[in-house]
Specification:
five-stranded mixed β-sheet, single chain, alpha+beta, 3 domains, Coagulation Factor XIII, Chain A, domain 1, five-stranded antiparallel β-sheet, D-Maltodextrin-Binding Protein, domain 2, about 50% helix, 21 helices
Length: about 600
């Protein structure tokens, strides 16, 4: 092995490759949980966790999804070992992405075709994939794209290895890689198409027929899934349509995403990478058969995606991400045409740009915060209701992890789509079984509010999380008893209450029959058996979010109070509530003349 025409030790190569892999790992793991999961990832988690108990994973994918099962089965096994946290599930994609970077080394070596400066080719190819923004972004998602890239790299590697020496072992490995691709993502079959075209053009005689036979064998092995389940998946709804139009503007967007703002440099290197120097009579620069495979890999992927997009809606950056390894190889091959010092300078420029600039980044809606807000106050037996487009799959994941056991969560969109025969009667029946309903709403469809009104639920709280200019609203609805518990002299009425000893929390519900012109403080406190104050919580209603001057007449306000300290010795404690104005300390008794109202006792 040589570098800059001088011998290079294995240790030097290993050191350089270790640095590339560490860089790949840094970019793929750093901030891996900074963003919440989003719609596509929600689809993955819903497929994994919410088909269970309803149907098996395979039948669930066939009925509701439009992807093959291999990634889901692998992730299911991974989750069984690591758990279902966002970090654990995304880490699977990150590890696969790092492994794909490592496998660029053997792939680049078979593309080198004995080039005397082969050291720089595998290192540069691995480095380019390590720095690819689309690959970094999708290495931090609970999706199958990095796994597809890994299998595509393996397919190309085993195909070229088989071309160099067509043994049955190499052919079998190539076959297995292609079978894995087909069972991971249908669009990954592009690489098989390009390999087949390459075999038709550049192979001869028996080897050509054998190559086509091995490709056909992969398709035959795939037939049981495709005929049994895959064909039916074409009728499944694909959720949010994220497909881009087949326009020049889309092509420009893809260029920026895959090549960055330094695209003129990258395009120039890719064009040079298509050429291999051959000592012919006139010493012309000509593409070789390896470059032809790369041309098809990049060019035909884009052409087919743009053309077929008119009928099948397949054009989006993540769906054409399978071109990333080919781009990396073309850039690495292009660097070989420069002198050592120029090559080093270009690599430094590329790395500096990629390290300091992000060209592909998707902000995600903060449904994790919405789920956490509801889970902070929810009790076992509450109900969750959603009308939030296809982000309902995302919120299912977060409510699974934030709402207490026993919470029933339903999506109105899914109910309409998958259980139309029981909609809306089934919704109304279920609502009547729950006194408290958490309703998450982000949609022009207002039917959920109408259902809650029909079942006698009253809005008592609103928590809003902003995503740009979008308001993600989580409402609390309660069934309120008709008669108040107690009235206070300032006009406030305690409508009902709930004491939750295990959480050391007291929930109150207030209203006022007339507008209030002062901001009153609510004090909830505990007295021990001797009448001594042992725990307390004071605030404006709903943790200072609903001061009394903001109340509408007869509006019901939910008002939770977490008592401090939370740890108390065993015993019986009296729970009471008192009203006052904080700026002058003036207290407002009940209409019966009591300084405070005793709610009851709790046991600790």
């Amino acid at each position: 092995m040589t570098i800059f025409n001088r011998p290079v030790s294995r240790q030097t190569f290993i050191t350089c490759m270790t640095a590339v892999l560490l860089l790949a790992a840094l970019f793929r793991i750093y901030h891996i949980i900074q963003r919440p999961i989003w719609t596509d990832e929600g689809t993955t988690t819903f497929n994994l966790f919410h088909f269970n108990g309803q149907t098996d994973l395979i039948s669930g994918l066939a009925a509701r999804d439009h992807h093959p099962p291999l990634y889901y089965l692998m992730l299911q096994g991974w989750v069984a070992l690591t758990g279902d946290s966002v970090f654990a599930m995304r880490y699977f994609a990150a590890l696969v992405g790092i492994l794909a970077v490592a496998l660029m080394v053997p792939l680049a070596r078979v593309f080198a075709s004995g080039h005397p400066r082969s050291f720089i080719l595998p290192i540069a190819a691995a480095l380019m994939l390590a720095l690819s923004d689309p690959d970094i972004d999708l290495s931090q998602e609970i999706r199958f794209y990095t796994l597809r890239t890994l299998f595509i790299i393996l397919s190309a590697f085993f195909y070229l290895r088989w071309l160099n020496r067509p043994t049955h072992r190499r052919a079998l490995l190539w076959l297995l890689a292609n079978v894995a691709i087909l069972h991971t993502n249908y669009q990954g079959a592009f690489i098989m198409l390009f390999e087949g075209l390459h075999a038709l053009i550049y192979l001869r005689g028996k080897q050509r027929l054998t190559a086509l036979a091995w490709l056909a064998a992969a398709g035959i092995i795939f037939l049981p899934w495709f005929l049994g389940y895959g064909i039916g998946q074409f009728d499944n709804e694909q959720g949010v349509n994220s497909t881009l139009p087949s326009t020049w503007e889309t092509f420009v967007e893809l260029v920026y995403k895959f090549l960055g703002r330094q695209w003129p440099l990258i395009v120039g290197l890719m064009l040079l990478g298509l050429l291999a120097y051959r000592p012919l009579a006139r010493r012309k620069w000509l593409p070789d058969d390896r470059a032809a495979l790369l041309i098809m890999w990049v060019g035909l992927t884009l052409i087919i995606s743009f053309v077929a997009n008119e009928w099948f809606s397949i054009l989006s950056p993540r769906r054409v991400m399978l071109i990333s390894p080919a781009i990396a190889l073309l850039v690495a091959r292009g660097l070989l045409h420069f002198t050592p010092s120029t090559r080093l300078f270009l690599l430094v420029v590329i790395v500096a740009y990629c390290v300091t600039t992000v060209d592909d980044y998707y902000p995600k809606a903060p449904w994790d915060r919405v789920g956490a807000d509801m889970g902070r106050y929810a009790q076992s037996g509450d109900m969750g209701l959603m009308e939030i487009y296809y982000d309902d799959t995302v919120l299912y994941y977060y409510t699974d992890h934030t709402m207490p056991p026993g919470t029933v969560v339903k999506s109105l969109r899914m109910w309409r789509q998958f259980e139309p025969q029981t909609y809306p009667a089934g919704v109304l029946d279920l609502l009547r079984q729950h006194n408290t309903v958490w309703f998450t709403h982000w949609s022009p469809d207002q039917s959920g509010f109408q259902f809650l009104q029909e079942t006698g639920h009253v809005q008592t709280a609103l928590m809003t999380t902003y995503w740009g200019t979008n308001a993600l609203n989580a409402y609390r609805f309660d069934v309120i008893q008709p008669q108040p518990v107690v009235d206070f002299t300032n006009g406030m009425r305690l409508r009902q209450f709930e004491m939750i000893p295990e959480k050391m929390r007291v929930d109150l519900w207030w209203s006022a029959s007339a507008a209030l012109d002062k901001d009153y403080s609510v004090s909830v406190f505990l007295l021990d058996a001797s009448g001594q104050l042992v725990a307390q919580h004071d605030s404006f209603p709903f943790e200072n979010n609903r001061p009394t001057t903001s109340w509408r007449v007869d509006e019901v306000i939910y008002d939770p109070h977490a008592l401090q300290p939370a740890d108390l010795p065993a015993g019986t404690y009296t729970v009471a509530v008192q009203l006052y104005t904080y700026y002058d300390g003036l207290k407002y008794p009940t209409l019966q003349g009591d300084d405070w109202y005793v709610l009851g006792t709790i046991q600790r």
